[in-house]
Amino acid sequence: MLILFDHSTPAPLRYALKGHVIVEAVERGWERLVNGALLDSTEAAGFELFVTADKNLRYQQNLTRRNIAIVALGNAQWPVLRRYVERVVAVVDAATPGSYAEVEIPFR
Fold this sequence. Notes:
30% of the residues lie in helices and 19% in strands.
């Protein structure tokens, strides 16, 4: 699966997502795009999944017309997130076109 990491997604997470192609928004020069433009660019470029720490994205954007799967991280602080990587992997692997899922990650 071709996955785009939003600028808020910790880069080390890419090593846990085996079998997927990971690209960071900054690698494309998209780190300054706002959510709607970023999602449009992501879909137009053929990405299948978008990983972000912006849990408000589903309230800020109309996601019903989107074909891209979206995974929102409950906590993007790598020292915490790394203990819950298996949750992220499971949600990413289960994602389907147009789906939205939040990964519960405690703030401790």
